[in-house]
Automatic annotation (TrEMBL):
<keyword id="KW-0805">Transcription regulation</keyword>
<dbReference type="GO" id="GO:0003700">
    <property type="term" value="F:DNA-binding transcription factor activity"/>
</dbReference>
<dbReference type="GO" id="GO:0045892">
    <property type="term" value="P:negative regulation of DNA-templated transcription"/>
</dbReference>
<dbReference type="InterPro" id="IPR029016">
    <property type="entry name" value="GAF-like_dom_sf"/>
</dbReference>
<feature type="region of interest" description="Disordered">
    <location>
        <begin position="261"/>
        <end position="285"/>
    </location>
</feature>
<feature type="domain" description="IclR-ED">
    <location>
        <begin position="75"/>
        <end position="252"/>
    </location>
</feature>
<dbReference type="InterPro" id="IPR036388">
    <property type="entry name" value="WH-like_DNA-bd_sf"/>
</dbReference>
<dbReference type="InterPro" id="IPR014757">
    <property type="entry name" value="Tscrpt_reg_IclR_C"/>
</dbReference>
<dbReference type="Pfam" id="PF01614">
    <property type="entry name" value="IclR_C"/>
</dbReference>
<keyword id="KW-0238">DNA-binding</keyword>
<keyword id="KW-0804">Transcription</keyword>
<feature type="compositionally biased region" description="Polar residues">
    <location>
        <begin position="273"/>
        <end position="285"/>
    </location>
</feature>
<dbReference type="InterPro" id="IPR050707">
    <property type="entry name" value="HTH_MetabolicPath_Reg"/>
</dbReference>
<dbReference type="InterPro" id="IPR036390">
    <property type="entry name" value="WH_DNA-bd_sf"/>
</dbReference>
<dbReference type="Pfam" id="PF09339">
    <property type="entry name" value="HTH_IclR"/>
</dbReference>
<dbReference type="GO" id="GO:0003677">
    <property type="term" value="F:DNA binding"/>
</dbReference>
<feature type="domain" description="HTH iclR-type">
    <location>
        <begin position="13"/>
        <end position="74"/>
    </location>
</feature>
């Protein structure tokens, strides 16, 4: 009896090679659409669609909603050590973020720092009827004037918190004004975006903790004229509760997000009421 052939055929081999090329490209991007992948790889769109569907079914690629871009998941780690896609903290937060948008209708975003900025890694804009932009995934936000950036800075230890710029050109704020904003974020438990950056919308954000370390921030964006101070405080409390839920999921998984800072904060830092006030303390070393 003859041995079964191990030859998979040239077409099958080409399909596998193309799929790995797609994974290699997508793992180096924050996210990408079918059209962008098709252009970059010079593959026909139908081919890209088939490959993406297969990878989504296998758990290697994630799409937030039918209208959003695609990104790789942490399952890609099983194929090698070069993972640079959706971190475990994002995967834990996706379900919570999606649920918040379903309840509140406003778009929710999750961000992590990268150098002198923080980057939006996930957004529910495609699922929100009040979306203010087509997409914000991959958008860089300034640390000292964005809600996400302030929420991150507020929960870094003094030894890791950078000094503010002497003058913020985008908003005209001095270092003293920036530090006042940061103190409000520390005392209140949530951060508010500096309105001068975009007068039509506003954002608030809170920290996400894992094993006592701040690993990401959870934010919500809304039209500035629609919600008053009381409504903003209620949304901030809901964000804090959601961030606590995400942190609990991460703690149960025991997965420490390697791409995030290892800044230590009290375990109850994210559970504090938004009406609490702390004592005066230095804001940077």
């Amino acid at each position: 009896m003859s041995e079964p052939s191990n030859d998979l055929g040239d077409e099958t081999i080409r399909s596998v090679a193309r799929t790995f090329k797609l994974l290699e490209l997508l793992s180096g991007l924050e996210s990408a659409s079918i059209g962008e992948l098709s252009r970059r790889l010079c593959f026909p769109k139908p081919t890209v669609v088939r490959m993406i569907r297969t990878l989504v079914q296998g758990g290697y690629v994630h799409q937030a909603s039918p209208r959003s871009d695609y990104c790789v998941t942490s399952k890609l780690r099983r194929l090698g050590a070069g993972f640079s896609g959706l971190p475990a903290v994002m995967e834990a937060a996706v379900q919570v973020a999606d649920r918040l948008t379903a309840e509140l209708l406003w778009p929710i975003s999750i961000a992590q720092p990268a150098g002198d900025a923080t980057i939006v890694r996930y957004s529910t804009i495609p699922a929100s009827p009040y979306a203010h932009a087509r997409s914000t995934i991959g958008k860089r936000l300034p640390l000292w004037t964005s809600a996400h950036g302030k929420a991150w800075l507020a929960h870094l230890p003094l030894s890791e918190r950078p000094a503010p710029p002497a003058h913020e050109p985008a908003t005209g704020e001095s270092a003293e004004m920036l530090l006042t904003d940061l103190r409000h974020a520390i005392e209140g438990g949530y951060a508010i975006r500096t309105l001068g950056r975009d007068p039509t919308t506003n954002s608030i954000a809170v920290p996400i903790f894992e094993q006592g370390h701040v690993v990401a921030t959870l934010g919500i964006t809304f039209f500035a004229r629609v919600l008053g101070p009381a409504a903003v405080r209620r949304m901030a409390q809901l964000l804090l509760e959601a961030a606590t839920e995400i942190g609990t999921l991460l703690d149960r998984q025991g997965c420490c997000s390697s791409c995030a800072s290892q800044a230590s904060v009290p375990q109850d830092g994210m559970r504090k009421s938004i009406t609490s006030r702390g004592q005066e303390q230095p804001l940077y070393s």
